[in-house]
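User: quick one - fold this with magnesium ion bound?
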Amino acid sequence: MTAPSAESVAQGFRELYGDAPDGVWAAPGRVNLIGEYTDFNEGFVMPLALPHAAVAAVSRRTDGRLRLHSADIDAPLVELRVEELTPHSDGGWAAYPAGVVWALREAGHQVSGADLHLASTVPTGAGLSSSAALEVVTAFALNDLFDLGLAPAELARTAQRAENDFVGVPCGVMDQMASACGEEGHVLHLDCRDLSTRQVPFDLAAVGLRLLVVDTRVKHALGDGGYAERREGCEAGARALGVSHLRDVAHEELDAALERLTDERVRRYVRHVVSDDHRVEQVGALLDAGDVRAIGPVLTEGHRSLREDLRISCPELDLVVETAAQAGALGARMTGGGFGGSAIVLVEEAEAETVGKAVTEAFAAAGFTAPRVFTALPGAGARRLA
Ligand code: ADP
Ligand code: MG
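Assistant: Sure. Structure tokens for the protein plus magnesium ion:
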């Protein structure tokens, strides 16, 4: 089952609140195909929406009460008042949907309460953006229920604001944009400087390919300083090169730019970011030309750059990429913030099972926790289901 059914979530809502919901909405998780740590450098990323999604049944309230419940965690109903929502109040999981209510109200929208019940199939903490799915499904539901008239990209920015300023996680806007704007059979080309987007055809099913997503079960924790350190190093690189962001270093100028950098660490980070921006453009061009299989080596090269230059991989992620290559995959790389989380593998549909099995066996042989492996096709972005 890739996403909870609208009916089952509506039924859960009825059992909890004693009435039918006003509607049911879905918002997917995502994986990033290419372009890592490029977002805060104002460069390019290319994520796709997964078939896995958060599904929320929601009713509008006008009395200021906000009631939140998740079918997936063993926690009681959370009851809040919209006018008392305070950033960083450590509401646990409920901070994600509550943060969206807060961010909408901060932006001047009249959101006067809601009852919400949700269930999600997006694995949590696997780098597949279960948090963005939660925020975006809430934002879409409230947008409809309160007639806010906001476009998907505006809802994505509101969701990001909820995560940054209410929950307190310094994420970029890619996850929310992918969840809000994804399209079946496409990847989203996102320019993180002006947030302009382009749907790039990525119809894996039509060309007999699949994407394997391998959750290594190594919990990524962006808060432990590794992310902040890379970010600081990139900013130092931009300063040393006299540009506002590394996006402004053209790929043709990369070698000359590297020669001007004296700090070995900063040089590696700059090389990763500028070359990964270039890889996003390469993948975009190949997909535009319908040459889907040719992106495989570009993905694998992206992994090498993340492992050797940015140094955010880990033995489990490296093992996925190595094993996949040996088992006949077209390409593979870690995806997301690194230090754990998930890897993606591009495979022929007929080889998907063999490659997945090879990875699972390699993990067992290495004494690692069994990975969670699933096949994915690019799915639809957030939408109303009922
Ligand atoms: P990721 O977004 O990579 O999955 P995060 O740490 O950003 O990881 O977000 C995970 C958090 O989101 C969980 O700890 C939980 O608070 C919340 N969350 C995600 N999915 C659900 C769910 N189905 N029910 C309740 N909370 C959820
Ligand atoms: Mg997240």
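One thing worth noting: The mean pLDDT is 96.
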